[in-house]
Amino acid sequence: MIPMDNVVALQHNDQTCRLAPGCGGSLLSWSRIGAQGPVDLLRPADPTRAVSPTDCGCFPLVPFSNRIAAGRFTFQGRAVTLPHDPGFLHAIHGHGWTRGWTVEDRSTRALRLALHHSADAWPWRYSAHQTIALEDDGLSIRLELLNESDETMPAGFGLHPYFPKPPGTRITMRVGGVWDNDSAMLPHAHHPLPPSLSFPDGLILEDSVVLDHGFTGWDGHAAIQWTSGPTAGTTVTLLADGPFGHVIVYAPAGENYLCLEPVSHMTNALNRPDVDDAGVIALAPGERVSGTLRFRLSSF
């Protein structure tokens, strides 16, 4: 259960965003007022029941995204073994979602959160920041990662938002290719985008469309359009400014949500030096990498 005294609410015009800094720096909800009352633009969490960021509307991915095979990799000659939950085969989603973030600055419509990591199994010291802001036409989240160690650190980041998926939900985006996963949910074969995944033309996520795949060559622009349910007639356009060349789409069977995750590198990138565009950022001591993700609202 998320303590109610740790929930922060941002408000701007007809929009509200509720956050739980202590629960992985997560967004509990993002909504706006419609004709019949509040309309959820992210899958909302119930703060009286949610026990994990995966119950929330969105959480940050730092200092890496998605899976590292068995939690093991070698970077610049250093072998690293990361602990991971016994329920997972791999280290997953980085540190940010498992730790509490602190509030550094706050206004009625914006919040800046910080996370400070001391070297441990991940042997590099770093700081991460999120700046979440409500704007006139939507929501923006800025991510920053600073290497505070004395050695170059492998780095990556992204977001893991959960969107509603009523019937007829359509995703439109331009990507270059897709990774097929093996039985351990690690990418093993890359292909051009097949006709069955017609994202450039707008792919409707019918119940038969089940995805947990990484896509390459993303141009930083994606649109989610809803034609039914409370969000009918609404489009959220995702605009990425920064090193977000990859996107993960997770649309599990039998669920009423989808995840469209903008990320800086492919899954298991730290174990894929054979892939030219794997996306690992070699962050020098004292160097910072940042990027901004904007969720723009419009009607049709």
Observed structural traits:
mainly beta, Beta-galactosidase, Chain A, domain 5, 9-stranded antiparallel sheet, 7-stranded antiparallel sheet, Aldose 1-epimerase, GH-type_carb-bd, carbohydrate binding
Molecular structure report:
It is a single chain. The protein is 0% helix and 49% strand. The chain is mainly β. A hairpin with a 2-residue loop joins β12 and β13 (138-147). The protein is globular and about 60 Å long.
Strand content: over 45%
Low-confidence stretches: none
Helix content: under 10%
CATH topology category name = Beta-galactosidase, Chain A, domain 5
GO biological process, one term: carbohydrate metabolic process
InterPro entries: Aldose_1/G6P_1-epimerase, Gal_mutarotase_sf_dom, GH-type_carb-bd
GO molecular function: carbohydrate binding; isomerase activity
Protein name: Aldose 1-epimerase
